[in-house]
Amino acid sequence: MAVVARRPGGARRGATRPGEAAVARVMRALAKAITGLEMPAVEKISESQAEDPFQVLIATLLSARTQDATTLAASTRLFARAKTPHAMAELSVKEIEKLIYPVSFYRNKARHVQACCQMLVDEFGGVVPSTMEELTSLPGVGRKTANLVLILSFRSRDNICVDTHVHRISNRLGWVKTALPEETEQALYAATDRRWWASINLYLVTWGQNVCRPVYPRCGDCVISADCPKFGVVKRASGFRASAAGGNR
Length: 249
Hints:
By secondary structure, the protein is mainly alpha-helical. It has helices spanning 20-33, 41-48, 53-63, 68-81, 85-89, 93-100, 106-124, 132-135, 143-154, 164-172, 181-191, 197-210, and strands at 233-236, 239-242. It folds into 2 domains: 20-38 and 158-242, Orthogonal Bundle (Endonuclease Iii, domain 2), CATH 1.10.1670.10; 52-154, Hypothetical protein, domain 2 (Endonuclease III, domain 1), CATH 1.10.340.30. Helix content is 52%, strand content 3%. Strands 1-2 form a two-stranded antiparallel ribbon. The protein is globular. The two termini are 24 Å apart.
C-alpha cells in the first residue's frame, strides 16, 4: 500500500477546509452525473485490461498533454505490438515512436517508455511495483502517474491523482487555493475526507472533459453549480468564460 505524505505544502495562506457536507454533496452528485459520459482513456484501458498495472502505467505515461482519443489509439497500437515489459523493452525507441505518434512529445515519451520497461525488467523482475517510492524511480514517472497506477491497479484508497482538470475544478470549487497541480495534491489530502480520495480523479476529470471545461464551462448544465463559487470563472452576456488555463491529462 502506498504511503502518503500528508502535508499542507502548496496551499496558500488563508486556505480553509471546505465543509464536509458540501464535498460529499459534490462527489455524490458527480457519481450519478458521470454515468453514461465518456470515460477518460486510462480508465477505459484499466477496465478493459482488468486493471493490468503495466498497461495502466504505460497509458498514463502517454496521456500527458494528449487528447484522450489519441492516447487510447496510441496505447492500443503499442499494446498490440508488445503487451509486457519484457516485450516492450526489446522494441527500439524508433519503433515505439512510430507506434505512439501523434501523442504529444512522442519522442521523449518513447525514450521514457523504453527505459521504463528496461528498468522494470532489470530491477523489478518485469513486475510493476506497488509503492510511490518505487514507481517514481522509473524513468518518466511522476506523482500523477504513480498515483493513478496505485488507485486503478492496486486499489489504493490513500492516494489522490491530480491532473489539470482536478487542479482547475478543485480551485473553482474553493476546496483548495493552489497555483500548481503538485500543490493541489497535497492540499486535497488536508481539504477532503479520505473516503473520496480514490474517486476524485475519475469524477473531476470526467466532469472537466464534458461540462466544467477550461474555457466556457457549461455552468448552466452543471449539477454541482449550487455548491460551486466558480472561482476564476467570469460571467459575460454571452455566457461563462474561465480565467484559469486548463488542458489534457
